Amino acid sequence: QVQLVESGGGLVQPGGSLRLSCAASGFRFGPFDMGWLRQVPGKGPEWVSVINDGGSRTYYADAVKGRFTISRDNTKNTLYLQMNSLKSEDTALYYCTRVSGGSWFENRYEYNLLGQGAQVTVSS
Questions:
Q1: What does the DSSP 8-state code read for residue 90?
Q2: Per DSSP, what are the bridge partners of residue 51?
């Protein structure tokens, strides 16, 4: 079964850290660019970060630059998002995605597979 399963979400105080993991199965993980989207109720999804197949190229939304780090382990078919210095505005449902197209030049990405989501809540 082709799927992405996120874990690691939760409740954290402002300034704290969380690490999201995404376990991929049912397809060859290595050749795909992968990414994280987040969504807040009432708003459209926002690309948070993307990483290329080899892990050598990354994209970060301006809102998370310097605080979040995307990484991947192709031997474990796993994608990660390390989130530091969390703010209340980072509260969202975070989705792991398999990137299917778009443009690195334009920082525009498309996906064709989405996980079930991991809730991240930043609150004191």
A1: G
A2: 34, 58
Which residue matches tokens 């799927």?
3
Taken in order 77, 68, 9, 42, the sign of the CA dihedral is negative
Residue 12 DSSP label: E
Structure tokens at 59: 């994209």
- Three-class secondary structure of residue 35 per DSSP: strand
Q: Are 45 and 35 in contact (CB under 8 A)?
A: no
Q: Tokens for 83, please give them.
A: 């989130």
pLDDT tens by residue, 61-102:
999 999 999 999 999 999 999 999 999 999 999 999 999 999
pLDDT in tens, 14-31: 999 999 999 999 999 999
* Cα 124 to Cα 122: distance, rounded to the nearest angstrom: 7
